[in-house]
Amino acid sequence: MSTPVDVVQICQDLIRIDTSNYGDEPGPGEREAAEYVAGFLSDLGLEPVIRESEPGRASVTCLWEGSDPDRDALVVHGHLDVVPAFKEDWSVDPFAAEIIDGMIYGRGAVDMKNMDAMILATVAQMIRAGVKPPRDIVLAFFADEEHGGARGAKWMVENHAEDFRGASEAISEVGGFSASINGRRAYLIQTAEKGIQWLRLIAHGTQGHGSLVHRDNAVVHLADALSRIAAHPWPLDITPTAEHLLRGVAELEGIEYEATPECIDRLVSGLGAMAPMIEASVRNTSNPTMLDAGYKTNVVPDTAVGYVDTRFLHGQQADVLRTIEELAGTHVKVEPYITEQSLEVPFETPLVDKMIAALGAEDPGAPVLPYSLMGGTDNKHLAAIGITGYGFAPLQLPPDLDFPALFHGIDERIPVDSLHFGVRVLERFLTDC
User: Fold this and answer.
1) Phi then psi for 157, rounded to 5 degrees?
2) Distance (Å, rounded) from C-alpha 248 to C-alpha 181?
3) Do residues 116 and 2 touch, judged by C-beta distance below 8 A?
4) Tens of pLDDT along 61-89?
5) What is the torsional sign of CA 76, 359, 146, 409?
6) Largest Cα–Cα distance in the chain?
7) Fewer beta carbons within 10 angstroms: which end of the chain, N or C?
8) What sign for the dihedral angle of Cα 113, 115, 118, 124?
9) pTM, rounded to two decimals
10) Contact at 8 Å (CB) between 371 and 191?
């Protein structure tokens, strides 16, 4: 392996740039982070390009030439934005990147400035050692992932698809990390992700004085609709990726896999900290998240608006929308707000074999299984131009760390040792991809 580059310092530098994404409002630091990344890559002799979809909403792409330009390129990408964090909620300043008990604390430590730092450190190590990847690598660092990517990856593929010309595969966040299964450390590679369907619900009623009897109240119509949606019991629905994972878990637990609710519940619960993520990947989900109604306590408004976050399994977008419309009822109109496709890609591929080999070189004998992400990544947008994306941000994690809870969570943090592990695995992978 080549001489290590300080991945911890890079991660701290990125966390200290506040790139909070407030949705449709401009974030404070995406351009600054893009300039940091571009400067780092320029210092390595590469030629990065910064592109802005709107002022300040900046993404970076960069071609790193490999030894065989005739092969399809690989996109290695991350996002630079983070969800907001507020100092009063945390035990530390969320943008100070303090190291406490071997952990880097800060917004983005897990999602996903850890991977951004690992990518930069790995590229630097290989270039300084004179090692070329075996194929062209397109490095990409996107804005706006945390609000659907319309000002980041989605805008890039719609307006600058040439930056990804010749690429057929990609790797990014939320995969390649370790989980404890029946006392054994296993690694999960993300080969599927649910679709995103954010919905706006608009209830209509009759406006009037708050002291009168009202039987056509928009607030009540909306509240009833959201209550029905929240209580809806979405049934189990096992996709090929989920079945592959659960069969692997059954083997590790020494039991026979059965496609029954009882067996599936047992296998999911055996995944420990990963259980909530996997539970959400074996069914569609719908959660009310925001409300907007009225302007004065003694006025019944004629309109009330709510938002629902639905996540659908591969190929089930229309079914989920139809169910929500039925649950909403006749007084509530359902409108799509943000919609992004679901993905399901093969696990048995040469690229995944290279991921497994790189993990195995650093943690011999550890099982590697596919899984489906309950959320979404920028791989959705790259898929629109024919690029097959995987979640592979390798991390060896302590068995007692509730890793899934740290995504968007209070006191988000990542072990320093996990970053060093990730760089070692990424360097092995990019040397042989």
Assistant:
1) -70, -25
2) 10
3) no
4) 999 999 999 999 999 999 999 999 999 99
5) negative
6) 79
7) N
8) negative
9) 0.91
10) yes
